[in-house]
Amino acid sequence: MVKKLPSSLPSAIFIMGPTASGKTDLAMGLRQYLPVDIISVDSAQIYRSLDIGSAKADAATLRKHPHRLIDIRDPSQAYSVAEFVVQARQHMADITAAGRIPLLVGGTMLYFKMLLDGLSELPEADQKIRQEIQIQADSVGWGMVYRELQKVDPLTASKLHPNHSQRIQRALEVYRLTGVPLSKLQLKGKDTGVNKDYNIVQIAMMVSNRTLLHTRIEDRFHSMMGSGLLAEVQSLYNRGDLTLDLPSIRAAGYQQLWRHLNGEYSLEDAVKKAIFASRQLAKRQITWLKKWSGSHELYIDDQKRCYSSRIICDESLKILRQHLILQ
């Protein structure tokens, strides 16, 4: 078992990495050796009914390896990074109080970042201003709205892609409400992150050969299709209350198949575009990780092949044993 650390701070583990890198398999593998409870850090897996396309573990696996913060929202509902931070902190505290170690795993890097650094007191959502920004985007396009954000808050804009409409909208909303850039407000929350409350061992799953990761992404998406992803999206589509404006439906894979059902893409084109979107997601995640400080890089391949889950787990345990006192 894990003894109390010399720093007296409770332990926590972060496992981060690009999509299809094997994060969830590693987290579940570590449960054989450490008293860890898993918290999901995934902005798609929070939604009920987004199962296959979000790479959510199946029901039997989740019974054996419970994950917190999955299936907590209907796809029609929004979910903010602020909500994640509050809920993740509470789960971490509950797990620690039970004498176990919180293990946070996922690829939503903004969630990790805000959990680590803390959030300042930001204004609540203002539907009128949000609607104004949406109307502006419908008129001139999100590219022009993004350029406006670059003028008023270049630091926040530099961290976003011009297609990150929800985050662009929120940053502009905050600025219009307060007159202060979101990036400046967030600096005030730097002392409220969990990094001051926990001894956190961060593992970043990295790749030497992007082609290998791209192949894994493609193979996994075809496997999802074979497991019924199109039917899953069709079921969501048939509800009648969901649209492409929602974060849930904009998730990679769901958006492209939704557009196929709308008659915009053939199925073949939708699959190709979904795979491309997943690769672009992986690229952004890797960019985050390359700039990340305080993490231990764990490569999942040796240029020619991807390592087995057993090897990756063993290497992770080596890293953890350097920072946790084990019997």
Description:
With 327 residues, the chain is of the alpha/beta class. It has two domains: 11-119 and 190-323, Rossmann fold, CATH 3.40.50; 127-187, Histone, subunit A, CATH 1.10.20.140. It has 14 helices and six strands. It has a six-stranded parallel sheet, with helices on both faces. β2, α2 and β3 (67-68) form a beta-alpha-beta unit. α6 (142-152) packs across α8 (165-178) and α11 (229-239) crosses α12. It is globular.
Provide the fold topology.
Elements: E1 11-16, H1 23-30, E2 36-41, H2 59-64, E3 67-68, H3 81-97, E4 101-106, H4 109-117, H5 127-140, H6 142-152, H7 154-158, H8 165-178, H9 182-187, E5 199-206, H10 210-226, H11 229-239, H12 254-261, H13 267-291, E6 295-299, H14 309-323
Parallel strand pairs: 1-4, 1-5, 2-3, 2-4, 5-6
Find the structural class using helix and strand composition.
alpha/beta
Number of domains: 2
**Count of individual beta strands:** 6
Q: What level of helicity do the residues show?
A: 40-55%
Output the helix-strand order. Answer: EHEHEHEHHHHHHEHHHHEH
In short:
This protein is α/β, with parallel strands linked by helices.
Top keywords for this entry?
disordered N terminus; Rossmann fold; 327 residues; alpha/beta; 51% helix; Histone, subunit A
